[in-house]
Every structure is written in C-alpha cells, then in structure tokens.
C-alpha cells in the first residue's frame, strides 16, 4: 500500500466542519478548478508570487504542479505539506504547513487560500486552527509564523484571532510595485490561550520521521 511507503497519505485533521488531508488525483483536479474559479479580488494581489494573474488554465495547472513539486522534493529536514480542505465532502481550498529543521528550530510556517464562494464563513480560521494543532500538539512546535500584505485585512484578522502578534514588516516588489508584508508570530503559550476550535489528528505517528519530529 502507498501508506506503507509514504504515510502522509493517511494523515487526517478534522474540525467541527472541515477535513484536511492530501487529495486523490481527482480531488486535486477539483482543487485546481476552485483556484481557477477565483480566490481573491483580481484588483488586489495577496501573494508574493502572483500566480493567480495567469490565464485560468495556467492557474489550475500550477496548483497541480505545485502539489507534485512539494511532494517530489520532500525531505524530513525541509518540507511543505499542502493539505486540501474539504467541507461536507466538497473541496474548498488549501492549507499549507511547512518547516525547516523542525527538531532544532521548533518553528512552523503556514499559508493558505480559499475559494471566493467559501470566504466570509469562518473557514479560514478553522483550517488554520487545524494545522496549528498539528504543529503544537502533534509535532512539538514552539512557534508558528505567518505573514500577510498590509492590504490583506482578512488574513491578518484570522491571525490575530488565533493569538498571533506582530513581528515586524518586510518590503517586497510584487508586479513592479511595493508590497509591505506584516510578519506575525504565535508562541505555544499564546496558542494555548486562544485555542477554541477542537481538532482531531489521525494517522500522525507513522508520519513523524518524515516530518523531522521523531
């Protein structure tokens, strides 16, 4: 079985409304369709790499290629886990968690996107809470970091709701224009104080060596 060689296919995170896991090939195609249907206002770019500015077919294909790229380049020392987010069996978005030298740094980073038709319903908060529980409860992390451009008030609001605090800024050139990123950091203590969403983690133990957390 595939799980015998790559146990991350058996990892499941569940919250009251959501399930997060690696997708099947057909579900990956559904995820690509969600991205192509739109995940943000076209007039505002929330990503450092403006991958959503391309033709719709390219946007969809880039989701698939990025998924394969992250799995193909996997090492326990440096990894990025792209979990597809499901609500009532329907693909709604993507939640990423990653780390470098986790056993030493005890730090993870997160990123995400959500189909526009699913926004404004608290799903973004719930899916981030799921991977934070994986980080702090499952992997023994001490800190989680994230970031959002200063115009991305929704992402910033999710972070603050979950206990993140400001951690400086960084200036980027995106599409030839200045974009200021607001860095955010969440400690274990702040996560515990703000933890409200119940999360169930299944299939983690055999994944720990691949996540650099054994």
UniProtKB/TrEMBL annotation:
Keywords: Transferase. PROSITE patterns: GNAT. Residues 18-187 form the N-acetyltransferase domain. The keyword DNA-binding does not apply. GO terms for molecular function: acyltransferase activity, transferring groups other than amino-acyl groups. InterPro entries: Acyl_CoA_acyltransferase, GNAT_dom, N-acetyltransferase. It comes from the Bacteria. It holds the Pfam family Acetyltransf_3. This is RimJ/RimL family protein N-acetyltransferase. The lineage of its organism: Bacteria, Bacillati, Actinomycetota, Actinomycetes, Propionibacteriales.
């Amino acid at each position: 079985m595939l799980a015998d060689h790559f146990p991350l296919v058996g990892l499941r995170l569940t919250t009251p409304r959501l399930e997060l896991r690696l997708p099947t090939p057909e579900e990956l195609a559904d995820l690509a369709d969600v991205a192509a249907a739109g995940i943000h206002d076209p007039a505002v770019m929330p990503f450092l790499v403006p991958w959503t500015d391309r033709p719709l077919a390219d946007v969809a294909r880039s989701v698939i290629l990025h998924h394969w790229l992250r799995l193909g380049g996997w090492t326990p020392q440096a990894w990025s886990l792209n979990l597809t987010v499901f609500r009532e069996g329907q693909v709604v978005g993507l939640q990423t968690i990653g780390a470098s030298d986790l056993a030493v740094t005890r730090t993870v980073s997160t990123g995400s996107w959500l189909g526009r038709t699913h926004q404004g319903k608290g799903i973004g908060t719930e899916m981030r809470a799921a991977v934070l529980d994986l980080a702090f409860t499952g992997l023994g992390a001490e800190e989680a970091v994230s970031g959002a451009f200063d115009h991305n008030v929704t992402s910033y609001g999710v972070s603050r709701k979950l206990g993140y605090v400001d951690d400086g800024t960084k200036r980027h050139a995106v599409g030839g224009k200045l974009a200021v990123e607001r860095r955010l950091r969440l400690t274990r203590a702040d996560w515990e104080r703000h933890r409200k969403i119940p999360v169930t983690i299944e299939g983690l133990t055999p994944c720990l060596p691949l996540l650099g957390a054994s």
